[in-house]
Amino acid sequence: MAADLSQIVKAYDVRGVVPDQWDEALAELFGAAFVQVTDASALVTGHDMRPSSPGLSRAFARGAAARGADVTEIGLCSTDQLYYASGALDLPGAMFTASHNPAQYNGIKMCRAGAAPVGQDTGLAEIRDLVRRWTESGAPRPAARPGTVTRRDTLEDYAAHLRSLVDLTSVRPLKVVVDAGNGMGGHTVPAVFAGLPLTVVPMYFELDGTFPNHEANPLDPANLVDLRQRVRQEGADLGLAFDGDADRCFVVDENGDPVPPSAITALVAARELARHGGRGTIIHNLITSRSVPEVVRENGGTPVRTRVGHSFIKAEMARTGAIFGGEHSAHYYFRDFWNADTGMLAALHVLAALGGQDKPLSALVDRYDRYAGSGEINSTVDDQTARLAAIRAAYEGREDVTLDDLDGLTVSSADWWFNVRPSNTEPLLRLNAEARDEATMTKVRDEALAIIRG
């Protein structure tokens, strides 16, 4: 399987088809390599509900223990529950999940103690190279003293920690529809929401890694159809949709209309700033709405703009001491959660904000949803560099616009902006556009697409 490593070791994680691209034998080598690269004497592992996850997780633990590390297995968990365990126990961790990918996929998200990410530049490349060497020359020799493998349940502690960060004791009763997509939200939501003044209408809470109802990817509007309809049928106050490993949360209002993740970022940023005395740094990536830095400044905070991608967000969180960070993809990062992302904590903030006043969610988020956005539009191109150069040539020199190259190319004016980023893995350019009104956004979007697809 050595030849497959370049295909399954991504920028931030391991991910591929089981058993075609990787299997338990390879997972065991990843466990041994993780211990060697991180110099871990102990670590924690967890896994999602995919059929292949328990076996892969156990194999990783065997490999780690053979290298002398004591392994704490927390079993079924969401990715943010694994981050909780890594932070609370101060241990490196490995989560077995392929997030929103189809059932035949699986993967490993790895972190150092305190949920610090492991990516290509922070250990993952070395882990890949060790595994490659061992697949070619034979597995490493076991340590003189093998480690132990023990089980520990962290679900209730994880739930209690999240509830300690958001006060929901005095909110008005709310009816919330939750679509877990047969993913790990069906495991964590009952524990986290226990005892809160909520009437929960569950959808697809049965853990099933074959995803019989729809893909566990709420970023695709097709996977929100059932939730939107159920919210309207139930007359619910809001709906929540989690992805497969339940680290991302999407919100729909009482009308069944999706709430843009940028609006959630702005809402949570305002609450976190209030909780920290009206001061603090908030991280946002460059394709979140302009409403995010506006709201941050209005509430006394300092916005910091970053590239797209959780490794960049987490690095800036650590560098600046930021209290919160948000992405357009519904990843939300909290200083009080070891700078890691947790959609569940963001959901609790939305519930607290809604339940702390009398307006419906659509009215509450109006103040945070100020612009017309295109969403992300992908275009297949023959030459990414040439198309970006064509866009630059079309706008460079215009007095009414500015250009920057933080991540791809961003073209900004007083009333609009757009960003074009190349995909690292496919011949795609990704366009995001925003403007003060729908007509302007449509014009800007179509002008940019004409050049991209020209």
Automatic annotation (TrEMBL):
Residue ranges constituting the Alpha-D-phosphohexomutase C-terminal domain according to the UniProt record: 376-448
Keywords: Isomerase, Magnesium, Metal-binding, Phosphoprotein
Needed co-factor(s): Mg(2+)
Transmembrane stretches, start-end: none
Coiled coil: none
Species the sequence originates in: Streptomyces glaucus
Alpha-D-phosphohexomutase alpha/beta/alpha domain span: 7-135, 156-256, 266-371
Protein name: Phosphomannomutase/phosphoglucomutase
Family affiliation: Belongs to the phosphohexose mutase family.
